[in-house]
Amino acid sequence: MVALHATADPSGQPWSDYDVSERVAPILLRAFLYMARTELFIIISIFLLMLALDRRPRNYRSCLNEQVQRLLVPFAFWTFFYAFYGLIKAQHFGYFDSALNQLFNPFEWLGFFILGDVKYHMHFIPTLFGILLFFPLYQKAVRFPVLGVLVFVGLLVKSELDAFVFANFWGHDALPFMVRAAKVLTYVGYGMIAGACYGLVRRFDFEVFMPWFWPVFYIGFLLVLIKLVGSYKTIVTGEYPFDYTAGYWADFLMPVALFLCCMCIGAKNWPPILTKLAPYSFGIYLTHPVFLDMAEIYLRETELTPIVQVSLKIGFILPATCLLVVMLKRFAPLAWTIGLGRFPTFLRLSPQS
């Protein structure tokens, strides 16, 4: 995600102000990185939730209380932080007045907390929480793995709902909320595939899935080819091809293919260091825009090519973010903001085990 966000220009666009030849490298890099979309992390999160609920059953309320503390409390902290921190970038890029006015608009704060649009990456947490509300359905998929096919139904419905909503409510204040509601409801399909995969893993040893790796890999390779066609369109036009239907399916099925590939090689011996580093990923996700903004401010008036800017951003943001996360973990009063420490007593909804 860190590298992915670094591949776009400061406004999130595919370097539209540059020549076609200069867009090639960053767009191809983005195509590779974007195979691991946020939908992959949704599948992983729900898979792990099914595992946790299987090992330690909890009722609906207790489970949601835990998710509020783990997801929404850190999310609220960083939402407040970025609402004001973003003024620094706004000052340098010439939209300070509009950014400041947002802070005095209650409707904008509603978007910050419900949509997570205070920063482009924050949308993931409220979306994930909304999807987790349906976890009893995913438990059904654990029992009946065939329900995993509902991921296709969800994506089909999402495509149709998005087309309808954008065509009929463009410019309306309710549009982003309607789009997000449609996303949450249709992304339940990702929860069903996660539950189905856990159900299969619970029934069989990982070795059973190893022969399926190359067929699944081949499917993923075909999806990559379709994604490259979309990348070509982006390079030529300087715009993301939102109307490319095949690209839509390739983008949203790629996370499923990646997760299935990982499941097929789950029996292999993986370095223990991955387990030790995994808890830091949430903090890296939450804090990397701190340094992304710094990098974009520094590079805003340079004449460097897009790929050089992307390389410099990644080279600065990733180590700086990792260092910040390590420091926050060691600073007990704030470690909870990245999910690596105990919550202050007044923030706890229930005793933590």
Quick structural gist:
This protein has 353 residues and is mainly α. Helices cover 71% and strands 0% of the residues.
Alpha carbon gyration radius: 21 Å
**N- to C-terminal separation?**
31 Å
**Could you estimate the helical fraction of the residues in percent?**
over 70%
Largest sheet: none
Number of distinct helices: 17
Low-confidence stretches: none
**E-strand count:** 0
Average pLDDT for all residues: 92
Describe the structure in your own words.
With 353 residues, the chain is mostly helical. Helices cover 71% and strands 0% of the residues. It contains 17 helices and no strands. It has helices at residues 2-6, 20-33, 38-55, 60-93, 96-102, 106-114, 124-132, 135-143, 150-169, 175-186, 188-203, 213-237, 245-264, 273-277, 281-299, 306-330, 332-335. Helix 12 packs antiparallel against helix 13 (245-264). The two termini are 31 Å apart. The model has no long low-confidence stretch (mean pLDDT 92).
Describe this protein with a few key phrases.
17 helices; mainly alpha; about 350 residues
List the helices and strands and how they pair.
Layout: H1 2-6, H2 20-33, H3 38-55, H4 60-93, H5 96-102, H6 106-114, H7 124-132, H8 135-143, H9 150-169, H10 175-186, H11 188-203, H12 213-237, H13 245-264, H14 273-277, H15 281-299, H16 306-330, H17 332-335
Helix pairs in contact: 2-12, 3-7, 3-11, 3-13, 4-5, 4-7, 4-15, 7-10, 8-11, 9-10, 9-11, 12-13, 15-16
